[in-house]
Amino acid sequence: MTDLAQFLDAGRRVILAEADALTTLADQLNTDFAQAVALVINAKGRIIVSGMGKSGHIARKIAATLASTGTPAHFVHPAEASHGDLGMITPTDVVIAISNSGEVPELANLVAYTRRFGIPLIGMTSRADSSLGTQSDIVLQLPQLGEACGSGVVPTTSTTMTLAMGDALAVALMEHRDFTPENFREFHPGGKLGARLSKVGDLMHRGDAVPLVQQDTPMGDALLIISQKGFGVVGVLDDSGRLVGVITDGDLRRHMTGLLDMSAGQTMTANPQTIRPEALAEEAVAAMSGQITCLFVTASEDEAKVVGVLHIHDCLRAGVI
Q1: SS3 319
Q2: Share of the chain above pLDDT 90, in %
Q3: pTM confidence score
Q4: I need a labelling partner for 1 at 20 to 30 A (CA). Which of 39, 149, 274, 287 fits?
């Protein structure tokens, strides 16, 4: 049990140390950060992010975050850059080079290349007076704090601060560009995030698959439509084709006596809840709480014109839930 307590203490100590480091980083953020954002905004080309070792892993993540939030970016390995990949970098690009010490030899050729061709260079380092710091056009300096490992040799606190700096840069760019969840989905259509950002129009059933009847349709015929379409509901239209009601399993139970002698209009629940095709699928899931398992989708220009139907199972299959 003593060892378990020590493990827990170690975990908390590391997390608290890194949290304190992030607070220090936020407090020390200055106009250099704002200038770096402006430099990236005005870039005509792409953002090239590079780093070696643990900084390289962080650089890959920063490049991926930028790319998925509307800023064209990719990672270039500094060692590979010296063997031909420098040709991937053009004078219209902006380079972000990452090194906590600022003295990583593998970055030297990449840094020299940016200086030779006048390519803007943003350096992320804890030492502004380092080789990287003195060569950079803008330095995003990290506080010189001890690593959370205690021995000062394992990149922990420094990589956490670097990652946070990259996230701050990406979000500042997002806010400037009014980057929306819909924009994000264009770059991230897969996975759980992509599913959550799917639109109702992407998942709904259209055309003949939509269960619809007229108000004067006999309930015997309406029951056949419910059975054939397989959604457990049927929408009811007026003479102009506008949705005026819906018949669900609950409506059938409430009208068991004499049901087959009634029309759809007499059985339906009026003014049903609907959703538009441009709404996010997760909004539809929220609307289908409780007893609602199916929503009719109506056109934005005419809220009563049915263009599709969405079942809770469609959202489940797409991974929205």
Answers
A1: coil
A2: 70
A3: 0.65
A4: 149
Alpha helices (H) along 232-321 = 249-254, 264-267, 281-287, 312-318
Token pair listed for 43:
């870039």
The mean of the pLDDT values for the chain is 90
Query: Tokens representing 227?
Result: 């059975």
- DSSP secondary-structure letter at 258? T
pLDDT higher than 60, residue 190: no
Residue 156: half-sphere exposure toward Cβ, Cα within 13 Å: 18
Return the closest-CA partner of residue 51 out of 40, 43, 66, 62: 62
- Contact criterion met (CB below 8 Å) for 30 and 54: no
**Rounded CA separation 121/94 (Å):** 6
φ, ψ of residue 306 in degrees (nearest 5): -75, 130
Is the CB of residue 121 less than 8 Å from the CB of residue 135? yes
Q: Where does residue 35 rank: exposed (0-12), middle (13-18), buried (19+ CB within 10 A)?
A: middle
Contacts 24+ apart (CB under 8 A), 63-68: 65/166, 65/167, 65/170, 66/166, 66/169, 66/170, 66/173, 67/187, 68/184, 68/187, 68/188
Instruction: Give CA–CA dist 194/212, Å, rounded.
Output: 31
Residues forming beta bridges with residue 218, ordered by sequence position: 263
How far is CA 150 from its chain centroid? 35
The helix/strand/coil state of 173 is helix
Q: Are 51 and 78 in contact (CB under 8 A)?
A: yes
For 286-301, how does the pLDDT look when each residue is reduced to its tens digit (9 = 90+)?
Answer: 888 777 889 999 986 6
Report the DSSP beta bridge partners of residue 51.
98
Q: How far apart are CA 249 and CA 221, in angstroms?
A: 15
Spatial distance between the Cα atoms of 273 and 292, rounded to a whole number of angstroms: 9
Check if the beta carbon of residue 214 is closer than 8 Å to that of residue 299. no
Amino acid type, 99: S
Residue 159 identity: T
Distance CA 22, CA 106 (A): 27
